[in-house]
Write a structure and sequence with these properties.
Number of strands: 0
Distance between the termini: 25 Å
Shape: globular
Radius of gyration: 17 Å
Largest sheet: none
Length: 171
């Protein structure tokens, strides 16, 4: 799943307005305009299409992992408020390189923090999304990469979580 697709689903699930998206990106350290946000939230053309329109590419901005992590950091600040940095900690957290291939794990961890979700809340959301998971499985996904019990979060799992989140927040 592409970062742009995740942002589209997350925006829908949490009912975030365009001006709020600009603010969240700004809180994460990325300056974007409302027009750029609309280009980021444009759905991509099917990968299976042989004919690729050049105009289609000009109307879309691809969200890279660094930009996506900055958005999630901004979402945490937006939802929970600005936190005073601890001694030796930078003002704005720099996006880490460790999340290069584990975007879905990062998504779940940061959403858990931003929305102040407990493990039980996350299990309920996953249940709403149509997937039954044990506490142990969820714990493995939320672990730090490199831990012996770490499990990579697949696209289907992240998709079901976002679907469940939409059901929970849009009731």
């Amino acid at each position: 799943m592409e970062n742009n697709d995740i942002l589209i689903r997350l925006r829908y699930a949490l009912d975030i307005k365009n001006k709020d998206m600009v603010e969240i990106f700004k809180l994460g350290g990325v300056e974007v305009t409302k027009e750029e946000v609309l280009k980021i939230l444009t759905k991509s053309k099917d990968e299976y299409d042989d004919e690729v329109d050049v105009e289609e590419d000009e109307n879309r901005i691809k969200c890279n992992n660094k930009m996506f992590e900055s958005f999630l950091n901004g979402l945490i600040t937006y939802k929970r408020g600005k936190q005073d940095p601890k001694p030796g900690q930078s003002e704005n957290p720099e996006p880490s390189e460790q999340h290069k291939d584990h975007v879905n794990n990062m998504l779940l961890k940061k959403l858990k923090v931003a929305l102040q979700l407990t493990t039980e809340d996350m299990l309920d959301i996953l249940d709403e999304g149509g997937i039954a998971v044990s506490k142990g499985e969820l714990g493995a996904i939320l672990r730090k990469a490199g831990h012996r019990n770490y499990k990579e979060c697949g696209d289907n799992f992240a998709r079901k979580f976002l679907k469940g989140l939409a059901v929970k927040h849009r009731e």
